[in-house]
């Protein structure tokens, strides 16, 4: 989760795609928002191992766009394959 947050901060679409599970990964990912978000913090609220190869992470990521504070609150699902963790999908919280 932290590495994907860092990839969003660095606007590293290649890493985000590589760490996204093939079953839900988009064909492309363009990070060209204008103005670009300024990521300012990540809070991991809950990490839960469902079994050896499945986990969820609830987080809040804070950022600014055009000087206005925003936040993304999500519970993400991850799966481990061949020793590597992949983002599958997530539920956005209001």
TrEMBL record:
InterPro entries given in the database record: NTF2-like_dom_sf (IPR032710), YchJ-like_M (IPR048469)
Pfam families the UniProt entry points to: YchJ_M-like
The UniProt record lists the YchJ-like middle NTF2-like domain at 1-90
- The protein here is known as YchJ-like middle NTF2-like domain-containing protein
Protein's organism: Thauera terpenica 58Eu
